Amino acid sequence: LATALQEEKSILVTKDVNLRVRSRSLGLVAENYEEDHVAKSSSDVYSGFIEHLVDDQKIDEIYKNGTIEEEDGKFLSNQFVMLVSNYQENKTALTRFKNGRLQRVPEVSNKGIFGLKAKNKEQLFAFDLLLDKDVPLVSLLGKAGSGKTLLSIAAAMELVLDKQEYSRIVIMKSLNTVGSDIGFLPGPVIEKLLPRFGSIEDNLRFLLNNDKIKLEKYIQDGMIDIEPIAFIRGRSISNSFVIIDEAQNLSVHEIKTILTRISEGTKIVLTADIFQIDNPFLDAVSNGFVHVVEKFKGKELFGHITFRQGVRSKLATLASEIL
To answer: In this predicted model, what pLDDT tens digit does every residue of 267-296 receive, in sequence order?
Structure first.
């Protein structure tokens, strides 16, 4: 139809990036559908962090009392604020704005969170949100190798397996694949899923010191539940720590379906890298994850942080930046 109307200067508007490429190769004008964009560009997406210049006495008070009162409207609820001295730029304090106060972000204990320690301030912020039961919805955005999935699983194992604050860990992700699909796999559901959840299994085994038997027991006992998102409709998930991995591949409708399945007493964590989207109908500012970040920012039940550094390896970080 668009080809037939080409002489009338028609424009093909579609969310399918592959169709736009094919159309342009035929000389058609093709544009992305932008009405569902909640940010102008990926750099405009809420980061959850800000620096703020203050007098020295405010920083001294934070270190002395752990908190200071701050006027409403200056910061968003659960926004992380690095207080920086007006006179000494090296004098700082890491805080989170909560209930009208700036509260100092606590350091992770020597034993870490299920043996894992924060490697930078963003990871410290993430642990602060992940371990806070007053914040049932957390989103973590970062490039490959920034630690968002590993930290989420570590916090889940700390709160479920060690502290028994939730009854189980539920890990879900979309079944979108990179490259060609390998087709159907034999065996029961968990055996079908594990090849597609390889990154999840890697993180679980890393935190369990590569103890495959212990991991299998946790799965068999229902302490760790691994499922595709396609199975969530009609369910009501209660008293669980839920991790939705690679949420950048989900539409607004899918994200809404997931969040409306969550019952009281459940915490849900969304992790995403908006530069690795496998869904041809979504982009960096139209996917469901970014809609959550932009629509929920400032709500008391929500917290977000964007990871700026890769920690997997120097090679992984370089590849993420230049490819």
So the answer is: 999 999 998 888 877 888 889 999 999 999
114 has pLDDT over 60? yes
Buried b (16+ CB within 10 A) or exposed e, 173-185: bbebeeeeeeeee
Amino acid 37: pLDDT:
65
Calculated CA dihedral for residues 167, 149, 162, 227, nearest 10 degrees: 30
Is the whole model's pTM more than 0.90, yes or no? no
The pair of structure tokens assigned to 267 is 């915490």
CB-facing half-sphere around the CA of 147: CA atoms within 13 A: 24
Asked whether 288 and 251 are in contact (CB, 8 A), the reply is: yes
Classify each residue of 47-77 as buried b or exposed e, where b means 16 or more C-beta atoms within 10 Å of its C-beta.
bbbeeeebeeebbebbeeeebbebeeeebbb
Six-digit token pair at 58? 């405010």
Which residues lie below 8 Å from residue 11, measured CB to CB, with a gap of 6+?
A: 29, 30, 31
Closest CA to 167 of 175, 178, 156, 177: 156
Contacts of 164 (CB under 8 A, 6+ apart): none
- Return the HEC string of 225-280: EEEEHHHCCCCCECCEEEEEECHHHCCHHHHHHHHCCECCCCEEEEEECCCCCCCC
